[in-house]
Amino acid sequence: MIKKSRKVRDYKALTRALPTLRYLNPPSVFIHLQNSRCKTYNLNVKEGDHVKIGEVIGIRHGGFFEQNVHSTVSGTIGTLIKKFHRTGRKVDCVEIINDYKDTLHESVFDRTDEEISKLTQNEIVEIIKEKSLVGLGGSGFPTYIKLATKDKIDTVVINAVECEPYLSSDYRLILEHPDRVGMGLKYIMQALNVDKAIIAIKSEKDPLYEILNQVLEVRFSDLNVKVAKLGNHYPQGWEIEVFKWALGIEVPFGELPTKYGVIGFNVSTAVGVFDAIKHNLPVIKRHFTMTGDAIRFPQNIRVRVGTSVRELVALCDGYKKELDEVLVIMGGPMMGVSTVSDDVIVSKTTTSVIVLENIEYKEEPCIRCGSCVYSCPAHLEPVQIMNAVKRNDKAVMKGLEAFKCIECGLCAYVCTSKIHVTDYIRKAKRLIG
Amino acid sequence: MENTLPKIVRKTSPYLRRPKASVTRMMRDVTIALLPVTAFAIWKFGMAAVVIIVLGILSMAVTEYIYYQIVDKLNDEKFKFKNKSYTLYNFSVVTSGLIYSLTLPDNTPWFVVIIGAAFGVFFGKLIFGGMGQNVFNPAALGRVFIFVSFGTMMSYDIDAVAGATALTVLNDDVFNIAVLDNFSLINLFTGIGIPGSIGEMSAILILLGGVYLAFRTSFEVRIPLAYIGTVALLASVVAIYKGLGVWYPVFHVLSGGLLFGAIFMATDPITSPITKGGRIYFGFALGVLTFFIRVFGAYPEGVVFSILIMNMFVTSFDYYKWTNQQITKRQKIIFTTVVLVTIVITIVGVSYVG
Questions:
Q1: Which of A1, A5, A379 is nearest residue B26 as measured by Cβ atoms?
Q2: ipTM of the predicted structure?
């Protein structure tokens, strides 16, 4: 099949209509102390200490990415153990044994609307930094750095596209808490001193369009917010694509969108901003999707950050028994990371776990059909980069700008010969890195 | 309980693949698209066509089979009846064989068919490393080989003009409308009552195949459009310059192997450039070459020649320093200039010939 194809079968029907279950009191949570950007950490507590929700228990070091580690339950500190993180590596985690009392730490208090309206950009940035909020769509980029921008911003874009197949946690989040999204957006607009905002959703998500418009009209009539319906493509949720389709602004590779007067936040991040500003609370719970064709009862679940995926699998009645091999993927099925075990923890940037039947695709020789070239959203020529990797020709890899690849996975998805093209591009990126 | 749990395996993203996309589907589609043409050939030439088609496909498949068995032998592998490199499974060799057979005249001797097929698949495909690696279109290579080597043994069925196809007539007497006395446009369009290669006669059936392929997205529609469009454009330029009627470009498009070559041979993805722009320029270059060979060259037909010549330049279309996924402004300017220059050259050339 030779064609430009940005349509990916989305399988969202598995969970989209299901109400969110609550699984907020696991016996214990595991808070990871390292991540891909922060290798070292300080832990302020020791085994047996009692902690409360929202209490700072340590710091992850990593320059810009330095962030406080908060407790997400109240209870006693357990041991330090190694567990798999979203990135697929084993990282140090601290166990907190839940005492089921949900006592809030003294630092958690509600700000009145009046107080909030007086906050300046710097104060908001400080609060967000202290609450270590990061991009909850999966990027994990610290939100305070974005909010602290000195560029003149015209438009705030809330990215609720969720273009990855299977995922429905953002969808449920908007459906169930549109007011929180609106409040979060309001605070972001206040911090950046912007009077225009856009909430970008996929065109097929009509219920969201109505709900958001209703809420905006009733509760946020003072804000100039539009809901933009974007096409049902993949990767429509890529920030650059969102800006292009919602605003017509094309941000060239390697430049910050803020230079062009736009800034983007994921919806869950907006809700995180709301929690941090209004309740002075770090991210302790999140919307989460447990789905895939190899899990018996796919569900949307609201979970405590730090919950073990194994418990959530059990909550969904386990894997389908007749399967021999499954893939456990953290994140979406196009860009997510596959883990070797279900003994992983839900960190605040984990949007979902997808359990898929393992299918071995039979690769055939490349017939140069060009589907990957036609489809690439970053305007690359994946097949040519692949051939350059095969003959280890770094000049060509650089010349074909392999470093621009966003690893969306579309080239491998559309491949007529079922070749894992994305893997070759990754290799090229490493080689010329 | 523990041992009934499925094993968790690790892979890299993405974990999904496009359903229905496969090489087999694409190659099978080409074969299906060729069926009407094949049926017409058999209807018109009867057993002669059947023999050529069967021999063409078989000798390509057998050559490939023997080749891989020898390769296995040389690599000290055990004898396997089925080899994974064997492309009969995904219709690739069938498609090549069928295309090759359909370009032959009906009175081609059987051994010539076999030699051409074996040569085409061996030197056009296997020697480069099999499917996906070939530089030349195997069908075109085989066809040209026997055309050059055994040209005298094949002549077209004598129908209206002694031993001549429509294009041979046109080649002798380039701008004479009298050619239409023997080959009316409607005959060229339907393929009834004209001589030619067994599969290249009926324009309407070839177009039908092309429409099918376009709907199934199994070929790149830009190549035939650019190819045929270029021939039509240049022929129109000549027609205007010489004061000929509309018949001249139409005649060029419908006669010879142009439609067949453009739709089934030039579009072979392996031997065409990879980008949208590259494919358009490729089609354009094919059109120019074909038209020049027809009008200025010694041979009456230039389709397979131009396909082979352009196959060699595919890598330069895809050279990393100027290839681009999108058609850039610079490319547009250069392309427009090239088109204009070509038109000028055509006019100058025609004023010498005519």
A1: A1
A2: 0.88
pTM: 0.89
Q: Domain B23-350: which topology?
A: Ammonium transporter fold (1.10.3430)
**What does the domain layout of chain B look like in residue ranges?**
23-350
- pLDDT level of residue B98 (50, 70, 90 thresholds): very high
Collapse the DSSP code of B156 into the 3-class scheme (helix H, G, I; strand E, B; otherwise coil) and give the result.
coil
The residue in chain B having the minimum alpha-carbon distance to the alpha carbon of residue A342 is B8
Which residue in this structure is represented by tokens 């595919």? B314
Question: What does the DSSP 8-state code read for residue B2?
Answer: G
B132–A340 CB contact, under 8 Å: no
Q: Say yes or no: B225 contacts chain A, CB-CB below 8 A.
A: no
Give span(s): CATH 3.40.50.11540, chain A.
113-279
Report the chain A residue with the minimal C-alpha distance to residue B27: A1
Contact A54, A71 (CB under 8 A): yes
pLDDT at B169: 57
Q: What is the pLDDT of residues A27-49, one digit of tens each?
A: 999 998 887 778 888 888 888 88
The fold for domain A113-279 equals Rossmann fold (3.40.50)
B351 vs B288, which has greater pLDDT?
A: B288
Burial of B76 (0-12, 13-18, 19+ CB in 10 A): exposed
Residue B173: predicted pLDDT: 55
Chain B: closest CA distance from residue A376 (Å)? 9
A12-107+283-357: in CATH 2.40.50.100? yes
| Alpha carbon distance A116, A270 (integer Å) | 16
B78 touches chain A (CB under 8 A): no
The reply to whether B269 touches chain A by the CB within 8 Å rule is yes
Span(s) in chain A for CATH 2.40.50.100: 12-107+283-357
- pLDDT, one tens digit per residue, over A322-370 is 888 899 998 889 988 888 888 888 888 888 999 999 988 888 889 888 8
Asked if B130's CB is within 8 angstroms of A365's CB, the reply is: yes
* Secondary structure class of A8 (helix, strand, coil): coil
